[in-house]
Fold these 4 entries.
Entry 1:
Amino acid sequence: VQSVLEGYNGCILAYGQTGAGKSHTMSGRDEPIELRGIIPNAFAHIFEHVGMETSKETYYLIRASFYEIYNENIIDLLASNTATTTSSVGAGSNKQGLELKESPDTGVYVKGLTSRAVKSVEEIDAVLRQGHKNRSVGATLMNQGSSRSHAVFSVVIESQSVDEDGVEHIRVGKLNLVDLAGSERQSKTGATGDRLKEATKINLSLSALGNVISALVDGKSQHVP
């Protein structure tokens, strides 16, 4: 998180079997403080740092976005037309998925994704809560509140400062906080119908992610899928 404040890109993700506690690890509970997850603790660190740096004539612009990947469709969880649901059908089942694009200047991005400017922990918490209401969840034999999608909360931090020589410096860092859906075995979850379709897509995407990670850590790989 600190590296992102210094202008680097970073990612924190929770990976594991369904029911293992990934969502709890990422989000946690509001009270007591000891049970707060990685995401709220990251928010607290960001704005604590910003509060200290602002007094040194460093100015910040912080923007947040929240989307899910449901059945291989990218759904904006902050869009005004995203229906609130807690069923396995999912918020994005009847919505047009957004497109993934790549730019030589900004890299990979989601076209048309809602971005909210935030000025405090309270404001960014409100964005997180709004998105959580629209996330696709459903019950299986292993988890009553099983995440049926991969959720990505992105925070873009831009800072502007002037050095002793009067030269202006602008830094931009992006932090992706990812709560992955859990890998599943149909024999244990009892998934059928829509839930089975969701599980198939989840396992397929997790397998693809595994291939990406393997290629990144293997110095011999010539291609990262």
Note: The CA atoms of residues 44 and 75 lie 27 Å apart.
Entry 2:
Amino acid sequence: ETSQTTAMGYFSREGDLPMMRWLYVKGADAQDEDVKFWFPMYAASFAGKIDACKWLFAHGASSDVKRGTRSEREVSNGLRPLTITVGKVHHVDLCKWLILKGALCEDGDSGNLDVEKVEFDFTWSVSNTNRGALTGWARRLQQTRAAFQAFLMGTLALPEYSFPELQHALSRRNGRAGDRIISHIPPDQCQLLWHELHAERDLGPLKALSGKSGIMELIGD
């Protein structure tokens, strides 16, 4: 059962892109859904062939980064491409690529992290050679993402509340009506109003540049 494969699975494991392309043109499936164990993405990942994995991903096998093997033997059942790469010292770049492509996410398109996948993939291998490097990389990636998100959404600190500053802000905003407004606001509500006024400010580059031609494409690049 675990030896079953197809020509696409064989050449994926070899990393032979010309043959993979030829087979695909001739009608071969990049997923081989009927194959229980050595499906192409798993075979390519097992051998550390990152270019073959990328090709398969782009040609219909994107969901296979989360696909598990099917075997009657418990030890060989439910293994995913990431499961068998985490423990191999020279496969760290492939591990990163698989993670970025959703290997640790829940099935479907939610994008939410699947805790069971994380626990299984990072503990199945006895060696766990890449676990430290990958967790450090993931931590730095998260820090970079948080910093970039802060840049886009705004990084200016909220000014410290003071009643005179609130009066001044309402006068600038509403003229004389601002004085009448503040005279009817209970003292305990003034600080809440201060926060609401500043929440409306466009503090971030994303808001400031909204509507500019091509800006979202530029940020995406």
Note: The mean pLDDT is 78.
Entry 3:
Amino acid sequence: CLHAIHMQPVDEDVCRQTVHAAFEAGINLFDTSPYYGITKAETMLGKAIQGLPRSELVIATKVGRYGADEFNFSADRVTASVTESLNRLQTNYIDIIQCHDIEFGDLEVVVNETLPALQKLKAQGLVRHIGITGLPFKVFHYVLDRVSAGTVDVVLSYCHNTLNDSTLLLELPYFESKGVGVINASPLAMGLLTNSGPPDW
């Protein structure tokens, strides 16, 4: 329901019921972004998780992308973004904070500004783990080869471990060598492997 908000309006009560049903079925990782629905997804998730045991949830959100063509990975913006997300999510910490679609930003800024700023927030207890997201594997290599071990805890890779593309499997030894976890996103290839098909873009 969270990424769907990015695509179409979603009823708040339906979102709450979906999140609670998912949790009861054993799903506890909920990934969102200020970009999804232009902050609506975070706001709805914040409402939806009320009544659930926070210590049993893994809440992941993102910084750096705020619109279709709006990217800002500066230290000041991502620091402010985390505060904004905490407020919308109605929580005092974020389990995984991710730099969103880094291939559209300046990777030197990600390495030298974004990640150090997020490390400071991690030291304050506002975020617990730091991640990066993107489509081309080369952006992960660029960042991970330039930061010290432990700077990045996880990467989110999408559309690369599906029926039509399994290239993520070839990258797993590299990520393991860096001590980085992997989130496999969009296993249905952005809707390509569904009856409705992918978005127009």
Note: Residues 132 and 155 are 5 Å apart (CA to CA).
Entry 4:
Amino acid sequence: DYAWIILGREPVARMQSLYYYRTSSKRGHRATAVIQKMKLDKRCGCFKLEFDACVRTMKVNGCSFGNSPFSDSQMKYFCAAKTVLQPHMGTTTLPRCTVDLAFNNALRYAFIGLTGQINLSMEAFSLVLPQFLSSAHLIVLQIHRLNKTIRRNLSTNTSMNGAVSDVAKGILKAHLPGFADEVDFFERIERLFWCKVAVLGLLQPAVGASTAL
């Protein structure tokens, strides 16, 4: 037997993280290649621009968001969950990735945590799979200590500063293919998260709330 677990992330926060991660010094020569490509693309490369400024600049310059650093889909990882590719059987056509298909596959997971609720997610993992993740809370400490993208990138002169503006979010909504579906999918797994957390008994009653029936 096996059980699947995973962490989901709010779409804009995920895009912002991927934008900075691709040029992180931790990626070595791969980051160097990305930075060089950004330098050469004067119109749409976003070299030395923070995420929010990059989104705005791409809109002004008429750049394609479909081939941008923001276009990696979270939903697609769930769409392919049922498909097994077997090379000896020739080409296999994957079904079109829809919100319903992705969410139906998501329901097969033992638990889907949220990066925005990492502590609660680790508590849930430890209850869902205690034989493997009874000390899951320690993972949070390791993430913060060992796996954190360096905030100041001297190669791109970016610092991951500032929240994403409503203007930038509006641009992504209007111009990034599949953005509405990504948001819809995340909202579904977010609701699923809170339902499962409640069933696991991890939600604390509000202060002053009555527990009488």
Note: Residues 179-199 form the longest helix (21 residues).
